[in-house]
Amino acid sequence: METTAILPDTTLTQSQIDAFHDLGYHIHGRLFSEQEVDALCVACERICQGHYENGVGPDCSYWSPGGDPLQLRKFDNCWKADRTIATAVLSPRLGHIAAQLISAPSIRMWHDQLLHKPALGGKVVVYHQDWAYWQAIDVCETVTCWIALDDVRADSGPMIFLQGSHKLGLVPAPNGFSGDDTFEPKLPPETHCPPVPVIIPAGYVSFHHGLTLHGSSVNTSPFKRRALVSHLMSGACRYRAGYGHSNLDFMVKYSEYPKPGQRFCGPQFPLIYPVR
Questions:
Q1: Hey, which residues does 205 pair with through a beta bridge?
Q2: What's the rounded Cα separation, in Å, for the pair 90 and 139?
Q3: Residue 245: CATH number of its domain
Q4: How many structural domains does the chain have?
Q5: Residue 134: inside a domain, yes or no?
Q6: Are 103 and 143 in contact (CB under 8 A)?
Q7: Which of 62, 92, 119, 230 makes an SS bond possible with 74, Cβ 3.0 to 4.6 Å?
Q8: Is residue 271 one of the residues assigned to a domain?
Q9: Backbone φ and ψ of 195, nearest 5°
Q10: DSSP reduced 3-state for 264
Q11: Does 267 fall in a domain?
C-alpha cells in the first residue's frame, strides 16, 4: 500500500473546487504513470481469470472465466485480492483530491470496482446516481474516482456525466442497472443537464459527486475499455441502518465494524487519507 508523500499535482486550486461544486465532476488529468497502468492491466487480467495474489477473491464477482466474452466484467473490492490494485484504489493521491473536493478532514474507502467493457461488447449502463445505492451512508459526502486503464474513445462506451445533475438531489432510480432500461434518465420537467462524455487517456482520473447522474453505452470500438473505480467517502460519514448493500454483509465478518449511528470504521472501510 502506498506510503509516499502526497504528490504536488494533487493540490487543487479554489477554482477547481468551485467548478466541481458547480458541474458535479472534476477531470484531474494524469495521476498514474504508464508503468503503473501497465502493472494494473496485468493485475486486472489476473482478477478476470480468477487468479488472486492474496489468496482471497473480490467481495463480489459478476463475471467468471469461460463466461460471455462480450459481457461487461465487473468485480467489487478487488483491493482485497491484489496488492497492485490496492496500491491504486487506496492511493492517498486519490484521497487528497477527494478530501479537497468534498471538504472532508479524512477519506475512507467505501468500495472499489473493476470494470472491463470488452471490445465490441458490454451493455448500456443506464444513467444513475451512485449514492442512490449507498443509502447506508448517512449523508452524500461521497466522491467517485474513475481511473482509466485504456485510452477512452468516443466509440468505446465512455462514461457520460450529466452536468449539474448533482444539484437535483435524489431522482428516481432506473428500473435496471445495465441494459434493461432506457438510457435516458428520468429528470424533472424543464431540467437542462448537458451530457459530457469523459474522453481521457489511460492513467487519467475523473472525479464525480455521489449525486451526479452518469451512464455509458456499448463499446462499439475494437479496443477494450477498462477502468478501476475507487468509491470514497468522508471519514465523518456514519452507518445508517435499514438500507442494504453487499458491503454491509462483508463488514460484519470482521471483529471491528460500525454500529448504527457510528462513523464507518474497521477493515472493510480502510482509511486512505491522511496517511497514517
A1: 29, 147
A2: 21
A3: 2.60.120.620
A4: 1
A5: yes
A6: no
A7: 62
A8: no
A9: -75, 140
A10: coil
A11: no
How far is the C-alpha of 130 from the C-alpha of 142, rounded, in Å? 9
Residue 231, phi then psi, degrees to nearest 5: -90, 115
Instruction: Look at the block and give the residue holding cell 477502468.
Output: 227
Rounded to 10 degrees, the C-alpha dihedral 204/127/138/13 comes to: 30
- ω into residue 274 within 30 of 0, thus cis? yes
CB 269 within 8 A of CB 251: yes
Place of cell 467505501: 110
Which structural domain range is residue 173 located in?
Answer: 9-258
Q: Which three cell numbers stand for residue 24?
A: 458535479
CA 250 vs. chain centroid, Å, equals 18
d(CA 34, CA 223): 18
- Going residue by residue through the chain, which has 276 residues, state the pLDDT in tens, using 9 for 90 and above: 343 444 548 999 999 999 999 999 999 989 999 999 999 999 999 999 999 999 999 999 998 888 888 888 999 999 999 999 999 999 999 999 999 999 999 999 999 999 999 999 988 888 999 999 999 999 999 999 999 999 999 999 999 999 999 999 998 777 766 655 556 777 888 899 999 999 999 999 999 999 999 999 999 999 999 999 999 999 999 999 999 999 999 999 999 999 999 999 999 999 999 987
